[in-house]
Amino acid sequence: xxxxxxxxxxxxxxxxxxxxxxxxxxxxxxxxxxxxxxxxxxxxxxxxxxxxxxxxxxxxxxxxxxxxxxxxxxxxxxxxxxxxxxxxxxxxxxxxxxxxxxxxxxxxx
Length: 109
Description:
Elements: H1 2-23, E1 45-53, E2 59-69, H2 80-86, H3 98-101, H4 105-108
Antiparallel strand pairs: 1-2
């Protein structure tokens, strides 16, 4: 029974990967960290840049899918022009909310 579940899980994973290859699209975990923050995946989920520090002190970044879903927007990688106009940094770690509550932020959009 356990082997059947494992085969089913592996089969599902291969199907998802195959669809991604065939149809393309943005998967946060496959994005370069340099364009991760402020991007939206093909599923409509926000991508978030996460930082970890290994035991030897090396800092590593990885792009992850957040639980925040954007309505009516998919497959977006923000342009440098937009990032600069909004005053946000490309390598922002986590979900930055400070910019969103600043007075005048929406005027920059």
